[in-house]
Structure of TetR/AcrR family transcriptional regulator:
Amino acid sequence: MGRPRTPLIDRERITTAALELVDAQGEFSVPGIARKLGVQTGSIYHHVEGRDGIIELVRERVAGAIDTSVLMLLPWDEALAGWARSYRAAFAAHPRAIPLLAGSPVRAPKVLEGYERAVGALLEAGFALRDVMTVIIAVENVVLGSALDLAAPESMWELTDEASTPALAEALAAVPPGQTDAAFELALGACVERFRRLLEA
């Protein structure tokens, strides 16, 4: 038999299979990817540099949905907020990837380019070099926490005896629709306001 015209596997198919496993299970294994693609485990290693290489492919795929072009907008606070919202949406689509990606250093060139653009935008806005990564990490803390919150059960509090926690029961009953989005915007707004004071200092 001749070789198939379309390869059974390539980096794109490996990435898709890995991300599907992560979305379903929060994890992947190289043998699991091989089974999903119907190939031998050894064949995977012809296309990627082991597990770490696959993690970076997943990172690149998820982060590829982040719109970094908004960082070129003015003023800087609107640009940063737009980037944060896009970042949140990208990871909210794959919340189970967050713990996996947080456990390994960022190496994917395209993802590093996105950070380069964010650093450049903050420096252009006048932030001190020593503060730039602190600002970016603060934004990521809000973004990734909110992305995980979007994947949480609709109610994270199950009151067995409302009489013992009456204030909590009333507060939960008063929660309006869209709580997660409102909480994200509140946290993001608070961050931007603090960043503004940092810039003015």
About this structure: The chain has two domains: 11-48, 66-200.
